[in-house]
Design goal:
Chain lengths: ~290, ~325, ~325
């Protein structure tokens, strides 16, 4: 111990408290502050998606023309549609469809967009320019026109729908990650990591990506909300999930023509499902953002 | 200092940046950050590079750490030329030189604990060894308890964090540590803590320091030799004691004058004060870059100026100083 | 050749009662977090007449909080809970926002540390100064522009007529700070607060800016409250000084006296760290500034003080006039 430096025993006792909890532990202690209704809503949806086969009273694709267009009742909570299929069961099953397509689509978008965005921001130069222009090109095309082009080229299936969702969201994650990475590039701790002998790839993985975690996870939830809208919207137009597979968008489409006849339940319930799911994801996204902001 | 091989030798190092005007992308200005600098740092020696913003002192440090590539010139570190090595070729040499940055809070990744950050640099050690015991030993050397290893940067005060940064720099037992304004971001009443630590470590480990600073008190406390830089060029170089006793260059005089605010007088003001603000020379101008701000500037100063030896180990880049026309005695300016 | 003063210098003293220009008594400011209330200022006292007062403090001292409190610009979640701030006899704490707005810029102005970021990047500098002028006086656009250009010229900006049309990013740090000073002084305030005005500027520029501040304050007759962590700057620019530590005033007195013979142990440590010893060593105060929420009702310096006694750890010291003109807060001197 140096003679000039005050010995440890003389150091003031007010050293800051050691927090043994890791990241997860800290999240747990925040739970009361940030976990609220929105998470509950999403939780319910996820449960429904998982347990649809168990929860649905009727077979969602079995047509029963004797019981067409029945209004909501005790036998059919949400009524039946034009093919006599129980709307309640279809909505439960559709949760699977929509959530799966949306989540997988966004996951692919993250897997593609985030690393590319990090590299784009960190490397700069030509790579950055090229990737930025590419994402802007994708973003510039109106969604439905873009989807039309893709479906025309690759055929109409739910797989292609997932691809469209991914492709539309990837530029968002690329740009977001890039904007987080750009100011980090000049940060001293990045230079310190270089001085420690880390290669650029190692620097990106160890130092850049973790610091990009916050905005990306918030955006993930928001993108899921967007993805649900895309899925439902495109299915409404007849793309993606074929009839009669249960999907909120196509259900709304089927019921749209019945509204003028007063048979509102055919469109309203699936519409409500979309609304609540989108709000749920959006709210969760905002909560995550608040969580990291503190 | 000893006649043994210097730890660091820099010869005619040049690094420019190009600044592109946003409005006119074709208008590219070359800004010479380091313009033909030569210096050497011996074993257990501290060389202070003094200058204000735009002097190139920070760029110089980053060039030595190979965070930037020089345009031309030679950098020799512990006997090996490094300026044209590739990233991977330089990696095994990184354990010989480390850096301490100006703002301790920004030099640690907020995502990791202090211990994790220090361990990252410990990997450069021969034979690894980034376990708990060696880490505790490092922290102990800078006067921190092992508790600090588990703390995050934001929970630690500035002075302590800078000491942790020093521990990180010392992790691979380097011969040379480059320090970029190590105490400027710290409170005045604790700057001495870090400086005292630097001195002790130098005594014990035979460390060499290349210290970039604008603070003359820091220079006086820890450095053996001073290089005064302005706009990429060395204006004056001398041993520390000699520089403060017999400053020759008008810029050095101006800096010393500006550092003692309370001791100024009308007379010293007229004589030593550097006027105006920093401005890069126009393309094609090869004269002294202080023209326009220097109280002693005359027409002849627009000719190229060279570093000339005026006393043992003491060189100046100013023809008027060499000719003895700049009064050395600093009556009215503290020494 | 000295330019004519731009505005009437305010009277040198207040008629009637001997009310000081600025008087802060026992000011306490807390930061309200969901869990607890943390004291940031724990009983600040200071006063100033028509002279130049320095406030010196290091990180966590509360010096910027004090300036913010005077102007009613405390950030959300932070508020004063006790004490008073009287300006020209008028209580500032609790004044409605509309009245504070008429005081800011007109009676009390402030310049901040980084001028380039404290100026609006979207309008020309001349326009910014002119707007402040128009906001508080009823002059016309052209008249306010003329005054702005005159102000810039008097602050040493060459070619002011043209430079007034330039934008903040076209100015160097020192020049931008002059613009900020111009905007602060255009309405002839009685008090100019300068919060670390030269921190971050090069030494050679710092000299210039400090001279501009001193000269323009003298010319317009305003009083100066200069906040800095650098005792050297305070020594060169102020007549009296207040030493703050962790939200409490440790010492007040004439700058000369406090620096040549400080009485409070913290001030002594601070002054010693200013001047290196003969062998070049810089002295320091061991330890670190305590976190505000760990300081109860005690002397905040107790943990690092060589004179600390039991009393220091439980009782907050009050300011006492130990020598004529020099007040010290310490139990043990």
């Amino acid at each position: 111990m140096q003679a000039d430096i005050v010995s440890v025993a003389q150091l003031p006792p007010e050293l800051p408290p050691v927090r043994p909890l890791g990241q997860v532990g800290q999240l747990w202690s925040y739970r009361r502050q940030f976990f609220n209704g929105y998470w509950l809503v999403l939780g319910v949806f996820v449960l429904v998606a998982l347990l649809a086969p168990v929860l649905a009273p009727y077979d969602p694709v079995r047509s029963d023309l004797a019981h067409q267009l029945l209004p909501p009742s005790w036998q059919h909570w949400f009524g039946t549609d034009i093919y006599g299929m129980d709307i309640y069961s279809r909505i439960l099953w559709a949760t699977r469809t929509d959530f799966t397509i949306a989540l997988i689509g966004v996951l692919i978008a993250v897997a593609v967009g985030v690393p590319l965005g990090a590299l784009s921001g960190y490397l700069g130069g030509f790579a950055d320019d090229a990737l930025s222009r590419l994402s802007e090109m994708i973003q510039a095309i109106p969604l439905f026109l873009f989807a039309l082009m893709v479906f025309a080229a690759l055929g109409n299936s739910s797989r292609v729908l997932v691809g469209v969702v991914a492709l539309v969201n990837a530029p968002i994650f690329l740009k977001l990650t890039r904007s987080v990475v750009l100011p980090l590039r000049g940060a001293d701790f990045i230079a310190a990591a270089r001085c420690a002998g880390l290669s650029p790839i190692q620097v990106v993985i160890r130092h850049i990506l973790p610091n990009a975690l916050a905005p990306v996870s918030s955006q993930f939830s928001i993108s899921c909300a967007y993805a649900i809208q895309i899925t439902a919207g495109l299915s409404f137009l007849g793309f993606g999930v074929p009839i009669p597979y249960p999907e909120w968008g196509s259900m709304i489409q089927e019921g749209a023509s019945r509204i003028i006849y007063g048979e509102w339940w055919t469109s309203v319930f699936p519409g409500l499902a979309v609304l609540i799911a989108v709000l749920g994801f959006g709210g969760v996204g905002r909560q995550i953002h608040k969580m990291y902001a503190s | 200092m000893s006649t043994a091989q210097p730890v660091l030798q820099i010869d005619a190092l040049v690094k420019s940046f190009s600044a592109r005007s946003m409005l006119n992308p074709l208008n590219v200005r070359r800004i010479p950050a380091v313009d033909g600098v030569s210096l050497s740092v011996g074993r257990a020696e501290t060389v202070a590079v003094v200058g204000e913003s735009g002097s190139g002192k920070s760029t110089l440090g980053r060039l030595v750490l190979r965070l930037l590539r020089p345009d031309s010139g030679r950098i020799t570190l512990v006997g090996q030329e490094i300026q044209s090595l590739s990233d991977s070729a330089f990696r095994p040499l990184r354990r010989h030189v480390q850096m301490v940055f100006q703002n301790p809070l920004m030099s640690f990744d907020p995502f990791y604990t202090i211990g994790a950050s220090i361990r990252e640099t410990m990997r450069l050690r021969r034979g690894g060894g980034n376990g708990d015991a060696p880490l505790a030993e490092l922290l102990d050397e800078v006067g921190l308890t092992s508790r600090f290893a588990q703390l995050r940067p934001r929970n630690v005060s500035g002075g302590e964090l800078q000491r942790a940064a020093l521990a990180r720099a010392l992790a691979p037992y380097p011969e040379l540590v480059v320090l970029d304004e190590p105490t400027s971001a710290l409170d005045m009443s604790i700057q001495g803590q870090v400086l005292s630590l630097l001195r002790n470590l130098q005594r014990e480990r035979g460390l060499s320091y290349l210290l970039a600073t604008h603070d003359l008190r820091v220079v006086r406390m820890v450095s053996h030799r001073v290089e005064v830089m302005y706009l990429g060029q060395v204006m004056e170089t001398a041993p520390t004691g000699e520089l403060f006793a017999q400053p020759r260059h008008p810029y050095t005089l101006g800096l010393i004058y500006a550092s003692d605010l309370a001791g100024r007088s009308e007379a010293s003001d007229r004589k030593y004060r550097i006027r105006g603000a920093l401005s890069y020379p126009a393309a094609g101008f090869t004269g002294c870059r202080l023209v326009g701000r220097c109280p002693f500037a005359v027409e002849k100063c627009k000719e190229p100026q060279e570093l000339v030896v005026v006393a043992p180990d003491h060189s100046v880049r100013c023809w008027r100083a060499v000719a003895g026309e700049i009064s050395g005695g600093m009556a009215g300016v503290s020494s | 050749m000295r330019p004519e003063p731009l505005v009437e210098a305010p009277p040198g003293h207040i008629e009637g009662t001997a009310a000081r220009l600025l008087e802060i008594s026992d000011l306490e400011v807390i930061a309200q977090t969901p869990r607890e209330a943390v004291k940031l200022l724990r009983g600040v006292e200071l006063w100033l007449d028509n002279n130049r007062l320095g406030v010196v403090g290091e990180s966590g001292s509360g010096k910027s909080m004090t300036a913010a409190a005077i102007l009613g610009l405390l950030p959300p979640g932070i508020r004063p809970t006790k004490g008073s701030i009287r300006f020209a006899g008028r209580e500032l704490l609790g004044l409605p926002e509309s009245e504070m707005q008429s005081i800011r810029g007109r009676q009390i102005s402030i310049v901040y540390q980084n001028a380039v970021t404290s100026l609006n990047p979207l309008t020309s500098v001349g326009d910014q100064i002119a707007r402040v002028c128009r906001a508080h006086t009823g002059v016309s656009r052209s008249e306010s522009w003329t005054r702005a250009v005159e102000m810039l010229a008097s602050l040493g900006i060459a070619d002011a007529t043209h430079r007034a049309r330039d934008y903040p990013h076209q100015f160097s740090g020192g020049m931008a700070q002059r613009v900020a000073i111009g905007a602060a002084l255009i309405c002839g305030p009685k008090l100019l607060i300068a919060d670390e005005p030269t921190t971050g500027l090069d030494a050679t520029i710092q000299v210039q800016v400090l001279d501009v501040i001193t000269e323009s304050v003298r010319r317009t007759g305003a009083a100066l409250l200069l906040i800095s962590h650098d005792l050297g700057v305070i020594q060169a620019t102020t007549d009296s000084v207040v030493v703050l530590y962790a939200g409490l005033v440790m010492e007040i007195g004439r700058t000369q006296d406090v620096i040549s013979s400080p009485l409070n142990p913290y001030t002594q440590g601070l002054v010693r760290s200013l001047t290196p010893k003969n062998d070049g060593t810089i002295e320091y105060i061991p330890g670190r500034v305590p976190e505000p929420h760990t300081i109860g009702d005690q002397c905040p310096f107790a943990s690092r003080c060589p004179l600390a006694s039991e009393r220091c750890r439980v009782e907050k010291p009050l300011l006492r006039e130990l020598r004529p003109g020099q007040w010290v807060a310490c139990h043990n001197v």
